[in-house]
Structure formats: C-alpha cells, structure tokens
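agent> Task received from the user: take the single chain below, predict its 3D structure, and emit structure tokens. No templates, no multimer pairing.
agent> Plan: (1) validate residues, (2) run structure prediction, (3) serialize to tokens, (4) report one or two observations.
agent> Step 1 OK, no nonstandard residues flagged.
tool_call: predict_structure(input=
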Amino acid sequence: MKPDNVFLNAALAAVVAAVTATGMSYLFLRYAPMGPQAADPERIERIIRDYLINKPEILVEMTNELDKRQAAEQSVQQQKAISQNANAIFRSPVSHVAGNPNGDVSVVEFFDYNCPYCRHALPDVLKLLNEDGKVRLVLKELPILGDDSVAAAKLALAANKQGKYFEMHQKLFSEPGKADKDKALRIGKELGLDIDQLQKDAEDPDIKKALDEAKELAQKLGLKGTPMFLIGDRVIAGAPDDLFDQFKAKVAEVRQNGCATTC
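)
tool_result: status=success, residues=263
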C-alpha cells in the first residue's frame, strides 16, 4: 500500500472515530437526514467518509491547523516552564558555563554525545562563541540514547573537576566513533587527566544531580529530542541548516528586547 493511502486511511479512521465518539459532528448535523436512523454510527461513518473522500484537501488543512495549535500550546507551556525554572535552567551550579561567564545573553543547550544532530550543531555553537564575546553558553548533559551516552556524560562532567570539561566536550563530538566510556577515557588521557581520579569523580553525587536536573528540566520544557537550545526564552529545536543565523537573530532580539519571562 502506498504511504499516501496509509496516511489517508489512518486519518479517515481517526476522524471517523473521533466524530462517532462525540456524536456532535458538524458534518453529520448538516448533511445527515433526521429521524430514527439519524444517530446510526454506520450512517455517520459513511457520511463523513464520503465527504472527506470528495474533499481530501481538508485533511491537509486539518493537519496544518492542528500543528499550529499544538505549536502555540507548546510555546505557552515552554514559556511558563522557563519562567518557573529560570534559576535551574540558566544559573544552576551543576551546569558548566562556557564562553563569557558574565555574558549578557545566555544560550542553553540540551544535548547527547551520541546525537548526530548535536554533533552537527557544534561548529555553529563554537562559531557563535568565537564571534560574540558576550554570550554565555550553559551546557545541559541529557544522555537519552542509552548507557554509553550516560557513561560519556558522567566522565565529561567529571573532567570539569580537573578543568578540562569543555575540551572533553568538544572532542567527544568531533572525534570519530561512538561516545562511550572507552572513548571518554582515551580522550581524558589525551588531555593529560588523572584517569583514576576521573573515574572516581564520575561517581560524585553532584554529577548524578546534574544529570537528574537536566532530565527533569527537559520534561518540564516538553523536549522531544536533542539538541534543544534556549536563547534567553527563545527556543530552537534541533539543528536546522540555518542554525547560526538563528542564533545571531535570537541573541540580537534578547539583547535588544530582553526576555518576556525570567531568564
């Protein structure tokens, strides 16, 4: 079966089920005959199915409208979550800050070292820091892609205790291969870290706290994948091709207008 047909049948089934469940369909009220058979579920299904088959473009309109409404609702919820959790998002003592610690605009990144989109975003993130000396980058380890990601994140955070977090962070993305414990330990040796101490520090309660905090914030923000960026209270989901341009534009907006919520 063609994908379009699968989509159409699934959409029709969903619409019919919703209308049948509510019994309040505008289409039914408008087009169905009144009388003892008017509330017959099979009759309702036939009427609506015939209508949608004759006007399939309405499915696209419905999908677009639903997407817009969901995006608007998500934006409202995200702004609320940012405002209510501003300290944990922007000023958490367990999150590493790169760039200018006293910068006037905060960029927050939620990421996983095994996320290809996060890897793709790294050059634009570094370019922003290099070109704008007033940006502070707050890094939130969110290892959602399995145990290897967790192990890499813990060792990266542990490297902070030896002053090499950001170097470890960049190498976990830029060097080939899956990010896991072995890769992180190898990079640690390359950076001249005390490996025994690094592994010991990876089990520090503060590191677990950092990971748990990032996970909780991601849930509150409705994060659906990595990376996600907050530029003040402006949101960029994923790593679009024009990511750097979006960074610049949103940093300029925040710098000029401030945040609508606390940031």
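agent> Step 4: summary for the user.
The radius of gyration is 25 Å.
agent> Done.
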